[in-house]
Amino acid sequence: MKKNNYILPTLWETITDKQYVIPVSEYLELAFDSLLDNEIIKTVPIVNLMLFGNNLRSSIKNQLLLKKILLFINSQSDLSTEKRDDFLLQLESNPKEKIRIGEKLILVLDQADDMSKPELIGELFKAFVAQEFDFEIFSRLVDGVNRVPISALSDFLQHDFYSVSTENTVALAFGGFMSFSVPIFVGSDEALISYKPNSLGDLLKKYCGKKFT
Question: Which superkingdom does the taxonomy of this entry point to (predicted)?
Fold first, then answer.
């Protein structure tokens, strides 16, 4: 069986077992070779899987993916054991849903174009685990995070909406976090597009705002 057949169960083993959900930020400061040689990091199942039969030391893409996964894992360290266990119990009764969620996590982490995004994805995942919203909303949120430049996300999460630049507001609208309207002025050929955060934007602000404070 190919290594890829193991990645989803190994990912779930990593993020649902408290002993593996460790703060890894201090280790991520290490040079990559030192990171791979770190005995604590090597105890994490997903790291072991990626090391096995995969030349991480010569693959920049896989090195970056591993760091994204570790950042995501780090973001789960304050998730309560009770919520983690309740979530896992629900998944065990629905194997197809477990696969679907696991595949989504791997895809969005791989697609993240900035090392701050795995932590944002992690914050949204914790809210999903706590049943603050369903999987469809989670998917729309994380897909939106990956569509928007980190500079625009940071601007929105750090500031009051009316302080966000026009350029960043347009980028956020493209990500699905803004609604817009075009009022019609009688006797005028000009229309001013008006933006405001929608329900997805409100959720992003609520659950990820602390990451940039």
Answer: Bacteria
What is the C-alpha to C-alpha distance for residues 141 and 135, in angstroms, rounded to an integer? 10
Q: Is the CB of residue 83 less than 8 Å from the CB of residue 48?
A: no
| pTM score | 0.86
**Token pair of 52 as six digits:** 């096995």
Alpha helices, DSSP H only, in the chain?
7-16, 25-28, 32-37, 39-42, 45-51, 60-75, 81-92, 95-111, 117-129, 135-147, 150-158, 166-174, 199-208
103 CB contacts (<8 Å, ≥6 apart)? 8
Q: Is 180 left (phi over 0), alpha (psi -120 to 50) or beta?
A: beta
pLDDT at 2: 42
- Give the per-residue SS3 of 74-106: HHCCCCCHHHHHHHHHHHHCCHHHHHHHHHHHH
Per residue in 128-137, pLDDT (tens digit) is: 999 999 999 9
Alpha carbons 52 and 192: distance in angstroms, whole number: 56
Sign of CA dihedral 57, 60, 63, 67: positive
